[in-house]
């Protein structure tokens, strides 16, 4: 069953159509990547999925339910979690404290009202598990403010996982990272894919990063869906090669 689906999703900014009649489905537990050159509409599409933007036309469905008119908070409660929604990283708290608070906020008032030793232990165990999953164990007691850029992204991912949504929208998790930091974050994403049984939709600018991780790849170009297929087919697709790979080649040689 499709856990996430769009039909003819469109948004116009003035005369410019940033997302143009995009229809796609994401089956449950699939790892789908969205690629495309600068300005293709990837982030705008994410904003439409998470509810930050309302479309000019078309619809978004979550588990068959039309959520087009719902707020980001309501969509999050229904199962869509987005990495950049994590605005509550406290710089002067440790990694453990930040993740613990995220786990606690998900469990909500129930746990606070019935606070007891076993629920606190459970929350701490989950926080430690998530810190391990994103490979930050050695930094457990570091203040968030003292983490390297790549480590901060890992912390954000741990806090996103704490919300325990079925769908994770990851917007360029490697953005702004030094080359040495990239393999570690890809390892984290691979581990999440293997261990967490989530549906993952990931935006990536650099196609080579996500070829082996993705079950399917969507290519956006000028707001349009150029292709949506298995990675191998995407590589062979001539339209994609000329539109997207050509652009990348230019970028590397510029
Ligand atoms: N709020 C807005 N108002 C006007 N135009 C916008 C707005 N948001 C995005 N756009 C335009 O929509 C187009 C798509 O932008 P978007 O950021 O979604 O692209 P992208 O594929 O995410 O690019 P990048 O890889 O650079 O992040 C661009 O031309 C951009 O200038």
Sketch the topology as an H/E string, one letter per element: EEEHEEHEHHHHEHEHEEHH
Ligand kinds? adenosine-5'-triphosphate
Rg (CA only): 19 Å
The 3D shape can be described as globular
- The pLDDT mean sits at 88
Query: CATH class of the largest domain, please?
Result: Alpha Beta
- Looking at the overall shape, the CATH architecture of the largest domain is 3-Layer(aba) Sandwich
The CATH topology of the largest domain: Rossmann fold
Number of domains: 2
Q: In which order are the strands of the major sheet placed?
A: 6-7-8-3-9-10
Which secondary-structure class do the elements indicate? Answer: alpha/beta
Query: How many DSSP E strands?
Result: 10
Low-confidence stretches: 249-254
Approximately what portion of the residues adopt beta-strand conformation?
A: 15-25%
**Cα distance, first to last residue?**
44 Å
Largest sheet: 6 strands, mixed
Helix percentage range: 40-55%
Number of helices: 10
CATH homologous superfamily descriptor of the largest domain: P-loop containing nucleotide triphosphate hydrolases
Give an overview in words.
41% of the residues lie in helices and 24% in strands. The chain is α/β, with parallel strands linked by helices and 254 residues long. The protein has two domains: 168 residues, P-loop containing nucleotide triphosphate hydrolases (Rossmann fold), CATH 3.40.50; 79 residues, no CATH class. β1 and β2 form a beta hairpin. It is globular and about 55 Å long. The C terminus is likely disordered. The structure holds adenosine-5'-triphosphate.
């Amino acid at each position: 069953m499709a856990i996430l689906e769009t039909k003819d999703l469109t948004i116009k900014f003035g005369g410019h159509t940033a997302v143009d009649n995009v229809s796609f489905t994401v089956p449950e537990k699939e790892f789908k990547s969205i690629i495309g050159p600068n300005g293709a509409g990837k982030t705008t599409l994410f904003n439409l999925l998470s509810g930050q933007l309302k479309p000019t036309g078309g619809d978004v469905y979550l588990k068959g339910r039309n959520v087009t008119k719902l707020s980001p908070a309501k969509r999050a409660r229904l199962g869509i979690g987005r990495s950049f929604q994590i605005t509550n990283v406290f710089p002067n708290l440790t990694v453990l404290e930040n993740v613990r608070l995220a786990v606690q906020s998900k469990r909500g008032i129930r746990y606070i009202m019935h606070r007891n030793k076993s629920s606190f232990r459970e929350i701490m165990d989950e926080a430690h598990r998530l810190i391990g999953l994103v490979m930050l164990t050695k930094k457990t007691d570091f203040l968030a403010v003292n983490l390297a850029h790549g480590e901060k992204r890992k912390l954000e991912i741990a806090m996103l996982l704490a919300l325990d949504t079925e769908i994770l929208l990851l917007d360029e998790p490697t953005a702004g990272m030094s080359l040495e930091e990239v393999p570690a974050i890809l390892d984290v994403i691979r581990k999440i894919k293997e261990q967490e049984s989530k549906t993952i939709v990931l935006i990536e600018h650099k196609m080579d990063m996500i070829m082996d991780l993705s079950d399917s790849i969507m290519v956006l170009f000028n707001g349009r869906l150029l292709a949506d297929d298995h990675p191998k087919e995407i590589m062979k697709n001539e339209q994609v090669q000329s539109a997207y790979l050509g652009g990348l080649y230019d970028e590397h040689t510029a």
